[in-house]
Each structure stands twice: as structure tokens, then as C-alpha cells.
Amino acid sequence: MQISVDLTKLDHNQETLTEKTVMELGTCDVVLFTSALPLAVDDLVLLRNPGSLLEVSAIVIGMLRQEGRRAVAARILRTSEPTN
After folding, report:
1. Residue 7: helix, strand or coil by DSSP?
2. What predicted TM-score, i.e. pTM, was given to this entire model?
């Protein structure tokens, strides 16, 4: 599965950073995508596709750097889950 998405790093203390990327894999709990944004474990991100059929908030749980980009794993947050 590959879905084109807009990836937004949600940070209340700095300006919002956004890029277009591809979600390579997704389940009801976890998504995997690549990113050149300055992400870190525990960062909150928003993934939204252009047609707005998909919009999920997730928290970064792991990363692997390679060739200037990062493979990122993020856990999807349920609406009732608290964020840090």
C-alpha cells in the first residue's frame, strides 16, 4: 500500500513544518513513511491525504536514517489518548 500524504510536524512552540511524502505501510495502529523533516521520537505528526479521506494524528515511535531521509514508524493516536 502506498498513499500520498501531507505530513505535518505538530509543534506548539515553533512554526509548523509540512512536506509531501508517501505512507508505505499502515495498520489500524501503526504507519510507516519516509521524511526529511527534523523529527524525533515522541514528536506528534498529522498525516492527511489530498482528498481528505485520511487524516490521522500519530506519535513517532522509531526512525532509521538513510541517504538523507528517515524511515519513520508512528503509532496512531485514538481521539481519547492523551499526548505529551
Report:
1. strand
2. 0.82
